Amino acid sequence: MRRTRILAAVGAGALLLGLAACGDSKDSSDSGKDSTGGKQVEVFTWWTSGSEALGLEEIEKVLKDKYPDIKFVNGGVTGGGGSAKDLLQTRLAAGEPPDTFQVHAGKEAQDYIDAKQVEDVSDLYDRFGLTDVFPQDLIDMLTQDGKIYTIPSNVHRANVLWAAIPVLEAAGLPTDSAQFASIDEFIAALDKIKAATPDVTPLSVGGTWCQVHLLETVLIAELGAPAYNGLFDGSTDWAGAEVKGALEKFGKLMSYTNADRDSMDWEPASQMLLDGKAAFNIMGDWVPALLDSKNLVAGKDYLYAASPGTEGIYDFLADSFSRTVGAPDKAGAEAWLDVISSKEGQIGFNKVKGSIPARTDIDLAAEGFSEYQQSAAESFKSDTIVGSIQHGAAATIKQGADANNAVSKFTTGAMDAAGLATLQQELAAAFAG
Ligand code: BGC
Fold first, then answer.
1. Contact 316 CB / ligand 1 (< 6 Å)
2. Nearest atom (ligand 1) to Cα of 391
3. Atom of ligand 1 at shortest distance to CA of 104?
4. Which of these CATH numbers, 3.30.470.10, 3.40.190.10, 1.10.472.80, 3.30.70.260, describes 160-315+390-430?
5. Measured from the CB, is residue 44 less than 6 Å from ligand 1?
6. What angle do CA 338, 317, 266 make, to 5 degrees?
7. Considering the chain, what percentage of its residues have pLDDT values greater than 90?
8. Is the CB of 319 under 6 A from ligand 1?
């Protein structure tokens, strides 16, 4: 069942980068550098601050330990996935690829496979003994024509609601659970926050990509998992009444958010909870690492729950890496892939980052993973899995970019009925065909 759901979310398509495939990328064989004597690896990610940067440092430590001769070159860029992916495209098109880059499993990875920008790394699965250590569903998402193209470093959940207990207390809201059965119930709580604590933002959100992230959780809640998955195989109509209703709820939620949202990435938006400036935040489970780094304690200082109306559903995404076609230093890329897929690498990295290891042979309790992470791992095993739009599991890069443009137009506009109608048309166009 789970497998079908993930695969349904991934589907085929992903034609955007096909153009680049015929164009500028160089094959590693003609990159002009010795691929066997590599002494460095340039790793391109958007993990540049907070727990993300710390997670990267953990992998770097394991790399240093295991491959002391290979220098880690941090090719990270700030600004979140959207701008990072744009910059990556520019570099790939200019024939200046990093040795390896962060890519989401699913349709996003499929884009790079179709564009022949990532190499077949099936040989490394054999060499590093990885064939049986990842969930088969995940491997299927990374495979084409029997070849596996990327190696997952972690699994994240996108549909999580985070709540600041002191703010809930001040507004007289329950402080034992942040689980809301529906978006409507959640809206009732936001109204209470607004009335009781007018200086507090009921729902904090960051810039456009965070708003698309919020939108996908509303679509999941309002449509349910099967109809949400249907958005990506044509069986659910983006232009239909169900999506219209969901978009109206999204518009309503946006009216409870901070006015300065477009100036911030996810971290400052989540930070508003820590500062008592916001009650709720819907964001992926890279948030607990931020909360824990400030010594906040789940259950005492903050609550987490599946985002409103999505209990029992796991909005999935996974980061993965490959050898870039034309990588200046293939050996460096391979060392990196060895490290990120190793037990040590996945433990060190994921413990700090908040995600769960993609490997299934790690005992999270024994390795000291947090309670949240242990619960996320359980949910990942038992919940219904759907793919994230914003984080590339269910949407191609172009679909994601178009969705970002559509949402930005709406949320920087009047957020009225006309805006909603345009948003729906533009989303329908983004996912058509
Ligand atoms: C990535 C995560 C990252 C998050 C916020 C997601 O797209 O998959 O690894 O923590 O963006 O930057």
1. no
2. 7
3. 8
4. 3.40.190.10
5. no
6. 105
7. 86
8. yes
- Spatial neighbors of 199 by CB under 8 A, at least 6 apart, are none
Residue 259's pLDDT is what? Answer: 98
* pLDDT reading at 285 higher than 70: yes
Closest-lying ligand 1 atom to the alpha carbon of residue 354: 10
pLDDT (tens digit per residue) in 30-46: 333 444 455 899 999 99
Residue whose CA is at the smallest distance from ligand 1 atom 10: 286
Please tell me the distance between residue 93's alpha carbon and the centre of ligand 1 in angstroms.
23
CATH 3.40.190.10 residue ranges of the chain are 35-155+317-369, 160-315+390-430
52 CB under 6 A from ligand 1?
A: yes
Q: How far is the CA of 262 from the centre of ligand 1 (A)?
A: 18
CA separation for the pair 335, 337 (Å, rounded): 5
pLDDT at 159 over 70: yes
pLDDT at position 410 over 50: yes
Burial 358-380 (b: 16+ CB within 10 A, else e): bbeebebeeeebeebbebbbebb
CA of 257 to the centre of ligand 1 (A): 21
- Beta carbon of 280 within 6 Å of any ligand 1 atom: no
Question: What atom in ligand 1 is closest to the CA of residue 47?
Answer: 12
Of 28-32, 100-104, 322-326, the poorest mean pLDDT is in 28-32
Tell which atom from ligand 1 comes closest to the C-alpha of 81.
7
Q: What is the identity of the amino acid at 123?
A: D
Q: Distance of CA 9 to CAs 233, 348, 403, Å?
A: 8, 30, 16
Cα 72 to chain centroid distance, Å, stands at 24
- pLDDT range class, residue 397, cuts 50, 70, 90: very high
Q: Which of 195, 171, 170, 168 is nearest to 179 (CA)?
A: 168
Instruction: Calculate mean pLDDT across residues 279-289.
Output: 95
pTM of the model: 0.91
- What is the tens place of the pLDDT at every residue in 43-96? 999 999 888 999 999 999 999 999 999 999 999 998 777 789 999 999 999 999
Ligand 1 centroid to residue 78 C-alpha, Å? 11
Q: Find out whether 327 and 31 touch, Cβ atoms under 8 Å.
A: yes
Q: Which CATH number fits domain 35-155+317-369: 3.40.190.10, 3.30.160.70, 3.50.50.60, 3.30.565.10?
A: 3.40.190.10
